[in-house]
Here is the input.
Amino acid sequence: MFDRRHFLAAASATTLLPSVGFAKGALAAEKADVVIIGGGLSGLNSAMMLGELGYKVVVLEAGPIVGGRVKTLDTIEGKLDVGASQIGRGYARVLDACMKLGLQLIPEDRDLLPFGFHYKGQWVDPKSWADNPLNQTVGDERRISPMLMGQAVTAKWNPCKELSDWLDPKLADQDISLRQLMVQKGYSPAAIELASYSAPGIGIDETSMLRMWQEETRSIADRRFGTTAGGTGEAGKREHPFGEANDHNAINGLASINNIVGGCQQLPFAMAAKLGDVVRLNKRVGRIAMSDKGASVTCLDGSTYQARFVISSLPFTMLRDVEITGAANPKARDAIAHMPYANTARLYLSVEKPFWKADGLPASFSTDGPIGMFWGIDNHTGEGKHRAMVVMVGKMAQAIAQRENAVPFILSEIEAMRPASKGLMKVVAYKDWARDPLQKGCGFSLAPGQVNAFGRDFVKPWQVLHFAGEHTRRSDFGMESAMESSERVVLEIAERG
Ligand SMILES: Cc1cc2nc3c(=O)[nH]c(=O)nc-3n(C[C@H](O)[C@H](O)[C@H](O)COP(=O)(O)OP(=O)(O)OC[C@H]3O[C@@H](n4cnc5c(N)ncnc54)[C@H](O)[C@@H]3O)c2cc1C
Here is the structure.
C-alpha cells in the first residue's frame, strides 16, 4: 500500500538526491545490452553469467580496483584481508567460482585464544559468571555467558526453519527489535542490558529480529556441513562464536573455514581478468535515467552508457547518491533512502610478546567499553610473536567512525585495561568500513518494521533497473549472498529476453 509514511519516504528520497558534479562536455554514448553498476562480487558474477548467455555487458566500477568489500591489503606482515575472508563448506557458489578460476584454498589459521570479559571496570571469568556478584540476571539467564547474551537469545527464539522463512508474512508480527523480543519473553532488565553489548546487527533497538534470524538460519545450514568458527558442533559455535579452536580437519578436501591463497581479493581479480575490457574502472555512476524500454547511465566523468537493462549492485548507502529518474516506485525509493547499514571497524596488530602471560588475564576479551572485542590470535606455538585484532561492531563501530585519531585512542584504551600490553603491539592496518567513501558501511540492515514496509518487495525490477548485491539476498549470507543475488537478476533479465 502506498500510504502517507511511504509517500513521505519517497519525497525525502528525492530531496536526498546527490550533490554530484558531472564533468562538462558530452561524450558519445556507448551501447550495451546490460550496464552493471559496481564491480564487487555480485556485479562481476552477473557480468560473467550474462556474458555466457550472449549479452553484451559493461561493468562500471567507481574505484581503481574491483572487489568492493572483498579487499586484501599489502601490509608489513604480508597479505591481509580486511573485508571478506572466510569461506565455509556450504559456500557452493564461491567454491565453484574458485575452482573454475583456478584459485587455491587453505584452511583458515585465525585461531583465537580464550576469552574473558571486562565489565563495569572488572575482569570477569566466563566460567564462574553464574556466581559472580556482578551478575544481576535471574534464573537460567545466569548461566549464559555475559558476552553472548544477544546471540543466545537470538538463537533461542528463532522461528525460521527454511532459509526464506524470514520473509514469510506469517512472521510479520516478529518484525521487532531484540529489546522488544526480550521484554515479550520476560527477560530481566540485567539480561537486556547485557544483550545490548552483544546484540547482532546494529544494536538492541535498531535491527529487526527477522533480519537477524535470516543470518542465524543460514548459519545453521552451514553448520550442517560441519562448518563452525568455534570448534565442532552446535555447542562449540555457541560457546566460541568467533573462532576459538577452529576445526582444521578436511572433509572432501575442505577445512571448516577456508581462505584464498594470496588473499580473498584474488577472486574478484580473477573474475575481472576473465571478463576483460568490459570492466571499466574509475567510473563512478551519478545518474540513471530510465523508461520502460531502456536506460541511460551517466558517470561523473561525463561518459554515458545506454542499455536495455541496468543492474545496480551498489549498497544503498551509495545508490542513494545516484540520481534516478523513471516511473514512480515508492517502495524502492523508501528502501534506497532508509535502509540502515551496520559498520565494522578493525585494528590489526602484531603482538611482539604475549603480554597475557605477564598479566595472567585471558588473551582475548570482550568489553562493555568503547573498543568492543580484542582477539588474541594463536601463533600455534604458544610463544613468541602473535597477531591480534580489535573488532568493533554495532554501536561501538558507529561511535568509533565519528572519532578522529581512532587508532591511538583504541591503543590507549587497551593499555588502560592491560598495562602489560604497553609497547608490545605494532599497528599493521586499520579499516573502518563506514569511512570507506565507496561503501559507507559494512553490510545492510533492516530496522524493526522495515521487513514489513519494503523488505519483501524492494528487490523487484524497477522498470529496466534490476537490483543485485548482498543487501538483496533472499536466503544466503556473506559472499554467497552477493553471488545468490546475481543469479536472481540474471534470471530476471533472461526471462525478459
Ligand atoms: C569487514 C567485513 C568482513 C566480511 N567477512 C566476510 C567473510 O569472512 N565471509 C563472507 O562470506 N563474507 C564476508 N563479508 C561480506 C562480503 O564481503 C559481502 O557480502 C560481499 O563482498 C558484498 O558484495 P557486493 O557485490 O554485494 O557489494 P560490494 O562488494 O560492496 O560491491 C559494490 C561495488 O560498487 C562500487 N561502487 C560504489 N558506488 C559506486 C558508484 N556510484 N558507481 C560505480 N560503482 C560504485 C564499490 O566500489 C564496490 O566495488 C564481510 C564484509 C565485511 C565488510
